[in-house]
Amino acid sequence: MINKFPIPLSDEYPEYATSYINFAVASGENIIKGLIDSEKSFKNYVLSLPEEKLNYRYAEGKWIIKDIIQHLADTERIISYRLLRTLRHDTTPFSSFEENDYVKAAKASERDIKDIMKEFSTVRKSSIALVRTILRKDLKRLGKNKSGMIFTVNALAHFILGHVLHHEAIIKERYVLVVH
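-> structure tokens emitted (180 positions)
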């Protein structure tokens, strides 16, 4: 097991993942500690928000906070699965997924926030267990999607952490700090 992951190089992931990677890198090189700490702090932060904020939409067509949290759990499941496949030498290209369809089908607005956060925490614990199995020799192992975009194991681990940190920043900036 390794805790200190090197900063992924730009050729280890597609350009769209840059923000997520940057958030993970800014949190420090101990990815496992980052995953543990971010789960706790994000959970505490979200559960401190009033119900009206959890259902607030800052613009027409944008997700509510409950949708974002469900998106985080769903995406983490998918990225962890991609990480697992890459670690297990499965070279089958990753399928894409349509995040808006997932959010619509999940119906997070109809769920209790504690239930959504419990799901998110469960997914995160599973991700932590998987990331703990990464060996240094596996960091540069490649997985790719059907379009040929590649991710290294290292970048996938960073993506898992950074994706949540990225969306937490958006929640704070666009949903909570706004006056309406």
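The chain has a mean pLDDT of 95.
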